[in-house]
Amino acid sequence: MADEITKPAAPEQAAAPEAGARPSGPRPGGRPGQRPGGSGRDGGRKFFRRKKVCKFCTEKIDNINYKDVRLLSGFVAESGKIVPRRLTGVCTPHQRRVTEAIKQARNIALLPFAAGH
Length: 117
Ligand SMILES: [Zn+2]
Known about the structure:
This protein has five helices and no strands. By secondary structure, it is mainly α. The protein has a domain at 55-107: CATH 4.10.640.10. The chain binds zinc ion (ZN). Residues 54, 56-57, 90-91, 94 line the site of zinc ion (ZN).
């Protein structure tokens, strides 16, 4: 680092004009925001898949009661929205029953329609 003074300036100046011609650059003057190569695209996924099984299938809950707010609230987001099936892992027939139950529960004000009123 401190050797800058001892370094002769002559070879740098001589090499400078010729360095303009790149024999075979790795990036042919492409975009500046290009990511430096090296790590391919193998580490793409941040979320590894968890094995999700439908909660109602495992616990064999067949009829979902709309009065069961504690159960239903697990499928309602904080905003009051129904959590989509892909997030909860509930199977389709059970998700349908959950949504129906949530809507019924909303009508009797057990669950919110939307947050922040
Ligand atoms: Zn199920």
